[in-house]
């Protein structure tokens, strides 16, 4: 039995987190849920610094064995709060999701789901972000069932606690092609701010975005060429497991700058 902390960015009443938490609890794991009291999608790794965080226990939403809290903060706030103020013992794993929508390619830079899991890794805890790659499908059970299977594999020894972004295709379990370890891909959006008027006649703006192209990322010299991007593999209905890291240092540019005289004369 594992002790698992679960958060998300879709909020306490989201079907995805309820399905994940209940499935893990029914599999015999000790589950604690601490997540936003409302949807906080695309908040990235934001923290609440200039106003108080309010939190309370929630009943009658999850399985009886699940301890659940709602929090006024961001997903990252929720994990920090859980580790510092809710849990008496350090969890074995931090899970985030199941997100209602994909977190593929550059989505992970904005994702509150991924950031909640990243907060776990920052504390040295193996963490996984789960995302269902559809905004319309409500079939979260195949993703939750996979989480239970994946959990049995996370007991292996790793060089360091991993941060995994898992995307599950929104198809029936029988139609999933398999599981692939992937690398982060690229996605391009056309974005615009639509101007609107409120009831008082004052203008405001609403960000709109549309995916127009999934861009094939150049091969990574540090990885075997046969490893697909998450974007590629999802197209073929594979569950994708993409290991991420919070260290954003670009080694290629470091070497390039280091060789230029300008950057070495001070």
Count of individual domains: 2
Query: How many alpha or pi helices?
Result: 6
Strand order of the largest sheet: 3-4-2-1-5-6-7-11-8
Task: Please trace the helix and strand order, writing H or E for each element.
Answer: EHEEEHEHEHEEEEHEH
CATH architecture of the largest domain: 3-Layer(aba) Sandwich
Q: What shape does the CA trace take? A: globular
Main β-sheet: number of strands, strand sense, barrel status?
9 strands, mixed
Measure the end-to-end span: 56 Å
List the helices and strands and how they pair.
Elements: E1 3-7, H1 15-26, E2 30-36, E3 55-58, E4 67-71, H2 75-86, E5 93-100, H3 112-122, E6 127-132, H4 141-153, E7 163-168, E8 178-181, E9 186-197, E10 203-215, H5 230-235, E11 238-244, H6 251-258
Parallel strand pairs: 1-2, 1-5, 2-4, 5-6, 6-7, 8-11
Antiparallel strand pairs: 3-4, 7-11, 9-10
Helix pairs in contact: 1-4, 2-3
Task: Write up what this structure looks like.
It contains six helices and eleven strands. By secondary structure, it is α/β, with parallel strands linked by helices. It has two domains: 216 residues, Stationary-phase Survival Protein Sure Homolog, Chain: A; 30 residues, no CATH class. It has a nine-stranded mixed beta sheet, with helices on both faces. Strand 6, helix 4 and strand 7 form a beta-alpha-beta unit. Helix 1 packs across helix 4 and helix 2 packs parallel to helix 3. The model has no long low-confidence stretch (mean pLDDT 91).
């Amino acid at each position: 039995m594992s002790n698992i902390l679960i958060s998300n960015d879709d909020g306490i009443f989201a079907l995805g987190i309820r399905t994940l938490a209940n499935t893990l609890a029914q599999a015999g794991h000790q589950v604690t849920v601490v997540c936003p009291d409302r949807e906080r999608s695309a908040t990235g790794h934001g923290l609440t610094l200039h106003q108080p965080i309010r939190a309370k226990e929630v009943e009658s939403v999850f399985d009886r064995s699940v301890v659940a809290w709602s929090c006024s903060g961001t997903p990252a706030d929720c994990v920090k709060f859980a580790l510092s103020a809710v849990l008496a013992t350090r969890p074995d794993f931090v899970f985030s999701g199941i997100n209602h929508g994909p977190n593929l390619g550059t989505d992970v830079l904005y994702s509150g789901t991924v950031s909640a899991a990243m907060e776990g890794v920052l504390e040295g805890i193996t963490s996984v972000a789960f995302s269902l790659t559809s905004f319309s499908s409500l079939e979260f059970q195949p993703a939750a069932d996979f989480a239970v299977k994946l959990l049995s594999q996370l007991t292996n020894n790793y060089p360091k606690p991993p941060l995994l972004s898992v995307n599950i295709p929104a198809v029936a379990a029988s139609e999933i092609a398999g599981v692939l370890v992937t690398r982060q891909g690229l996605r391009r959006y056309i974005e615009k701010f639509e101007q609107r008027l409120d009831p008082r006649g004052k203008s405001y703006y609403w960000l709109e975005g549309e995916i127009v192209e999934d861009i094939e990322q150049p091969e990574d010299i540090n990885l075997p060429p046969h490893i697909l991007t998450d974007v590629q593999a999802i197209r073929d209905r594979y569950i994708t497991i993409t290991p991420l890291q919070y260290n954003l240092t670009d080694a290629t540019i470091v070497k390039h700058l280091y060789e230029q005289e300008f950057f070495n004369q001070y």
